Amino acid sequence: MTVNSENHTTAPPTRRRFLGSLREFGPGIIAVLAMMGAGDLVTASVSGSNYGYSLMWLLVASLLIRFVVVNIMGRYQVLNIKNQTIVEGYNDVSRFYPWAIGIAALISGHLLNGYMIKGAGEAVAKIVTVGNPFLWSCILVVASIFVIGRNVYNTIEKGMKLLLAMMTVVFLGLAIYSVPDVGELIQGTIGFGIPANTGAFGVFAVALSLIGAVAGSMANFLYPYYVRDKGWKGIAFKKLQRNDILFGISAAIVISLSIWVVGAEILRPQGIQVSSLDDISQALTIHLGAFGGVIFYLGAFGILYSSVIGFANGFPKVIIDCLHIILPSRREQYGTKFEDDPLFKWFSLFILISPILWSVPGMPGFVEMAVFVTGLQAIIVPLVAIGLLILANKTSHFGKHKANLFENIILVATTLLTIWVTIQVFIGWFAG
User: Fold this and answer.
1) Residue 10's beta-bridge partner residues?
2) CA distance 90 to 105
3) Which of 261, 329, 353, 383 is the most buried (most CB within 10 A)?
4) 133-142 residue pLDDT tens
5) How many CB atoms lie within 10 A of CB 229?
């Protein structure tokens, strides 16, 4: 038996087939839905609109790399021999990490939820056609307060599974209804094709930016904390944890490729340039009627609102863990359950409520904010990637479960990519 973060016992999983394990999955679904957002939605549709199916393999590759990175983090939570959290492991690499990760998690949580809440409010306003986006953003924030309180992991897990099912049905349905070219779809996904209008260097730059951003995203830190909430600890949970995040990433691939198909089959033939979710919705309305636009916004709401809940519940865990490492007296006072620290509630409310500022009419749109937040992460992304590379190879922490050759190749490559992306971001800032 193992003990989870809520001091409940969790029995080792029974051996069962993959489909039978679906009921036990949860942390990967929550984490992946939190990681997805407006940026994924717009990027996939824009890429489909601009390049057709040619660059689909880039999207799949970036998500598979995210699987390697996040799986190592989750495996650390399950199997590290020091019984540490992922941030405690980083702290053993350098005492600087809890400060850097804690501050980055607070800023990232605020800014990421800034455009997620804004987009979710816009989606609801389009669906119900009553009230303005700012009003609905406020309503969603108030409603979320009742979801992200204490001891709500099971509630969030069930809600996320419903949102995942809705999003899969919506976007996969839209993709099928748009009648994709199956041959082109397969070739674009596994054929490593390069469209004539981009050139090898252009595709290389896109790949580096996409993979580098994915590998170093602060949202990757949420997964091991959801694994901790689930109570998975010990070798008996190794396979279940791996399949859990693999299922979540696979679902993200299906959803993202479905959005890409919509861009390739509907937006590209009409020559529509996408700069917002509304552009996609209008194109679908032209092609499928009013129903198509409503269906799209239901899926968009699922992606955006799941991120709002995931960030408001997950980032405070990371922040409190960092705070307890910096101030051990707080852990002695409140214990290892992060929700017992009174500051957890206030950090959670801050990450949920303060971003409403970005939904006030006249503020930048979430597409502009997505670009800004990605650029801002450049400050810490290389440090996160380097720290994970070192930690994943510590026999003193991982034992025989440290990173294998394939994982190390991925970690080294993505670490170099994050450094390259950071340099390019800073060059862009100074050049601008």
Assistant:
1) 2
2) 14
3) 261
4) 999 999 999 9
5) 26
